[in-house]
Amino acid sequence: MTWRDVTRQEPSRSRALIVAGGVLAAVGVMVTVWAAGTRSWWFAVVLGAWLLALVTIGVVTIVASVRAMGGAARLARPMRFGVTRGGFGVGPLIPAWLTAVPPMLLSGFMTAMLAGLWRQAVAGDPDPARSALDKGFATLMTALVAMIILLAVVTVVFAWRGLVLELTPAGLSWRGPLFRRTVPWEALAPGGPPRPRLDADRLHLAVTQPDLVVQRGLALGFGPRQHPAVALQVAVHPWFLADAIRWYAEHPEHRAAIGTDAEHQRLITELATAAPEHEQPAGASMPRPPRPRAVTVAAGLTYAAVAVGLVAAATNLVVAIVFGEQLTAAEHAMNAEEQRITGEPVGETLLNAAEFARAWTIGGLVLAAVAGIAAVALARATARGNDHARTGLITLAALVGVWAVCPCGSPTLDLPDTTGVIMLLLWLLERGALLALGATVIVLLRLPTANRYFRPPTISQA
Description:
Layout: H1 3-38, H2 41-69, H3 71-75, E1 82-84, E2 87-90, H4 96-123, H5 128-160, E3 165-167, E4 171-176, E5 179-184, E6 202-204, E7 214-217, E8 229-231, H6 238-250, H7 261-274, H8 293-322, H9 324-342, H10 353-383, H11 387-404, H12 417-445, H13 448-454
Antiparallel strand pairs: 1-2, 2-3, 3-4, 4-5, 5-7, 6-8
């Protein structure tokens, strides 16, 4: 099987898995809504299946990302392109379906949970204040779920297209989820770009005619038209990509043949035997600069988020133990009201309300402790300048953000009267704090000053 065959099969393989993920999410929503209506142990089984699927796909995505960004993986990237119709194409470093299926499953899970929230909000509560809070909370969660569904749509459209970068006879084109940019060969300065460092995440291009650059959308993080940057999270060796761009910028007589197998083989042979002056990346690294305030603040906010999560989890456990009888009484009252309306007896559940609340909150405290230990370890390593730890901390902060907008709350939210209202307000405060802290940590660790701390520039770049 040739490289061209592999390149052609990969979009089809990812598209098939994306379709399968969409079908799984849709079926999961319908089954969850049905199971919630039965008020039986089936709902616990379905909920467990959802959580298992989300954790599994999350672990697979993180492992694939870490392996792809490792030093050995960078060196093992192919020194060749995929030959497409009219150009040389490059796919994403991580399989396209891994960027689309997780948000699809997450949006399906949250949609199912949202249906349960609206069922409870429409049914109403004897306490007018609690009923108003339930409806307001359901409305807020609807807006958040809509945003997540929009994110899932954007990632699916982006992943469905397959290629993220392409060399054509006209120039170099690449795209992201929100933009597309084309730089004609005539706009590039000769003699560049130089080979980047193997741990670089951007390839910066020198443009002499920025007015020729064609761009649509928001190219945030990819430089302006005058200094465009190409993301290097692609399935090709970064040195081979830089050499190929430089070759076509300096040899216009070969551009017309781009997109043919013969030209692709000629390019590989030419670049392998040319021994360019850019044989090594652009020089040795400068000494690491002092730790910027952004990194110090990010570490401090991580510790604060750990404290918030542990206090909230411990509070939920204490409330579940102290108010267990009230939870059971509220469950009996709800079952009696449902039986009065439907005329049918309510099915038995595996655990009563108090037992389920204690099991849920104990699991929440254990999860918060494990996540807290991991967050503290990553924050300490990040503060010392470990770039891999920074990646791990950003990933963990993103997962916390996803958890913060998840509409499934603690069973203690079902407490009646004033106690339930207070728990709902505390739950909203906790989720809002974790979301804000996680987002701030991500932004701080991606600032230019933080990038220079984790990846000091080379002497020539300085």
